[in-house]
Amino acid sequence: MLSLLYQEGPSTKGIFRRSGSAKTFKELKEKLDSGTEVDLACESIFVTASLFKDFLRNIPGSILSSQLCDKWVSVLDQGNNEEKIKSIQRLIEQLPRANVVLLRYIFGVLHGIEMRSEENQMNAFNLAVCIAPSLLWPPVSSTPDIESEFIKKISSLVQFLIENCCRIFGDEITSLFGEI
After folding, report:
1. 46: closest CA among 24, 20, 25, 14?
2. Where in the chain are the domains?
3. What is the per-residue pLDDT across 125-171, written as a single tens digit (0 to 9) for each?
4. CA atoms within 13 A on the CB side of 85
5. Sorted alphabetically, which InterPro entries does this protein's record hold (predicted)?
6. Which of 9, 23, 118, 178 has the most C-beta neighbours closer than 10 Å?
7. Residue 15, CB half-sphere, CA atoms under 13 Å: how many?
8. First and final CA of the chain: distance in angstroms?
């Protein structure tokens, strides 16, 4: 999925914002969940993007770890950008290795899409609004007002991560997918 999103996302207007066919999404999700081989290249990139967000939402405790939720939310309240980046790197070090590897690829894709935002209309802010709720959620449910405020904070954090991903994850993030 990430490979397809890396290839097609930068040239797709509204990637992650528009939904694919609900019927196709449901059928493909059932096939993937049952272990059936699926050729996503034959499907709409919007369905693939929806499947990917669904995959992220189903990671137990979230990819950024709900246990670290308060720390993630408070990162942007810290000093200058350098201090924020250092805090983010320290939080990333506390995540399981599999989460870190996946995060690097996710932000490699998001960076590639953001670099062509003139074409796809998905700048860092727009991408963050679409993807942030799939990356982190609070460990306990809350009121709609608190949840809305939380999503705003996480979206700002994800926007910061996208805009600074090369400094956070390293410059090689731009070449993780090689020459596809």
Report:
1. 20
2. 1-174
3. 999 999 999 999 887 777 788 888 889 999 999 999 999 999 999 98
4. 12
5. ARHGAP20-like_RhoGAP, Rho_GTPase_activation_prot, RhoGAP_dom
6. 9
7. 29
8. 13
CA distances from 5 to 11, 40, 169 (A): 10, 10, 19
Taking the C-alpha atoms of residue 107 and residue 105, their distance in angstroms, rounded to an integer, is 5
pLDDT at residue 179 above 70? no
What is the crossing angle of helices 45-57 and 124-135, to 10°? 40
- Block residue for tokens 């802010």: 125
Interval 37-46 mean pLDDT: 94
Residue type present at position 156: S
pTM value is 0.92
Q: Give the CATH class of 1-174.
A: mainly alpha
pLDDT tens sequence across 54-106:
999 999 999 999 999 999 999 999 889 999 999 999 999 999 999 999 999 99
Residue pair 94/87 in contact by the 8 Å Cβ criterion: no
- Which ranges in the chain belong to alpha helices (H)? 2-8, 22-34, 45-57, 69-74, 81-93, 97-115, 117-120, 124-135, 144-163, 165-169
* DSSP for residue 98: H
Contact status, residue 136 vs residue 57, Cβ threshold 8 Å: no
